[in-house]
Structures are given as C-alpha cells and as structure tokens.
Amino acid sequence: MNRREELALSLAEVRERVAGACAAAGRSVDEVGLLAVTKTFPAEDVALLHDLGLTEFAENRDQEASRKVREFAELRPGARVRWHMVGSLQRNKARSVLGWADRVDTVDSTRLADALAKAATRPVDVLVQVSIDGDAARGGYPIGDLPRLADYVARSDELVLRGVMTVAPLGMSPEQAFAALYQAVTRLRDDHPDATVISAGMSGDLEDAIAHGSTCVRVGTALLGSRRLASP
Ligand SMILES: *Cc1c(COP(=O)(O)O)cnc(C)c1O
C-alpha cells in the first residue's frame, strides 16, 4: 500500500468514526469539521490529504509550520486550505505565526491577545484555549474566567473571536471535561453569539467530544500514524 492509499484508508476510518458519533448524538456530520494535525509529518502528506479532500490543517510549532506551509504551496500551487496554530505560543512569535496561520487556536492570556493584535495586519481569527482543570502547565485559560478573556478578545479591533478550544485534562474523564466545556460555551453564547467553534476531541476521544457539542475535531495519529519524537 502506498502512502496515498494508507492515508485514504485512515481518512475513511476517521470519517466513519465522526459519522458514527454524530449519529449517536443526533447531530449532522456537517456540524463537525475535521482538522488534520500534521505536526512532525512532511508537506507531502499534507498534499495527499488535500488531494483526498481535506482543507483544514494544524501545526503546533512556528518554525516547522512556516516551512511546511511554504513547501505545501510549492507542491499544490493555488490550493485553498486553512492553517491553524494549535501549539502554545510565545508572544515574541506572534508576528511570525501570523505569517502562516489563518487562525490561532491557542489564545490563553490577555498578554498573548495583545501581542497578536499588535502584530496583526488584517483581522485575525482566534479561539480562546480553555483549561478545564486549571493546570497552567498544559496551557489554557481557567474555565471559570472564560468570559473575561472572551470579552477582552472580542473588544479588540484586530482579533475576531471564533470560539473556544480545549485539550481534555489528564485527571478527568474526557466525557466530564467536554461536558464542562459545553456548559461554559453555552453561557458564553449569550454575549458572543458568533463564537460558534468548539474545537475539542483528538484521535483518542473524538466520540466523547462530539457527544458534547464539538464542532471541530483535531486528528493527528488516527489519520497520519504515530509520531516519532518531535525534534527539540
Ligand atoms: C497533536 C495534537 C492533536 C492531535 O493529537 P492526536 O492524538 O495525534 O490525534 C490535537 N490537538 C493538539 C493541540 C495537538 O497538539
């Protein structure tokens, strides 16, 4: 089996899981987008996934991503895809990340929001990254304070609040975590009706996330295979 066939097969499997989870939750598959997390994999894989119909890709490191985005553009000139930053982001990288990312999914402080706003040369779509258990080491803004950061981002002229993103914490069932996120987002919608994105669920827990309102699953391993250790 060549790489294209391999990816086609895993993509079909992922789509089937998403469809099954949507059916179980009484949701339409159109409500749940698939974001391919291509970190550590080459631009050639992005090109093949694009040929198979995917248009949304995510990376977690600025340097690797900017190179890959350039390489992909050479492999598939004129292809219309969107790139997402899903890794933790230092403020001094804001300008560089905006050079390749169409959306920054990991805004977890007012200071990072300020840095992105300052670096922006166009309106920038962002998600607020939420920490469900308050463990600062894993990134994310405390869920209890979510309205504060959401309001802050929404007031910025340069940033456009599209929704929220989370990674399920280790010490809690994904089920519980995604349910808590959904509750918080439901309250947030009163003030921010256009913040409709809930980015939740990865290879291991996408069914739980879809059961609790995810509109965007971020899938790496289940699509591309297991990652070798990331380069330092
Ligand atoms: C790597 C990564 C993913 C994908 O994880 P898999 O378990 O490989 O599907 C999703 N979200 C973020 C933020 C990641 O860094």
TrEMBL record:
GO molecular function terms noted in the UniProt entry: pyridoxal phosphate binding
The answer on whether this UniProt entry bears the keyword Transmembrane helix reads no
Query: Which of the residues bear the PTM N6-(pyridoxal phosphate)lysine?
Result: 39
Which of UniProt's keywords are assigned here? Pyridoxal phosphate
What CDD domains does UniProt report for this protein, alphabetically? PLPDE_III_YBL036c_like
Q: Where is the Alanine racemase N-terminal domain?
A: 31-226
The answer to whether keyword Cell cycle applies is no
Q: Which cofactor does it need?
A: pyridoxal 5'-phosphate
Which residues fall in a coiled-coil region? none
Name the family.
Belongs to the pyridoxal phosphate-binding protein YggS/PROSC family.
User: NCBIfam families this protein is in?
Assistant: YggS family pyridoxal phosphate-dependent enzyme
| The protein's role, per its UniProt record | Pyridoxal 5'-phosphate (PLP)-binding protein, which is involved in PLP homeostasis.
* Protein's name in the database: Pyridoxal phosphate homeostasis protein
Q: Which organism is it from?
A: Saccharothrix syringae
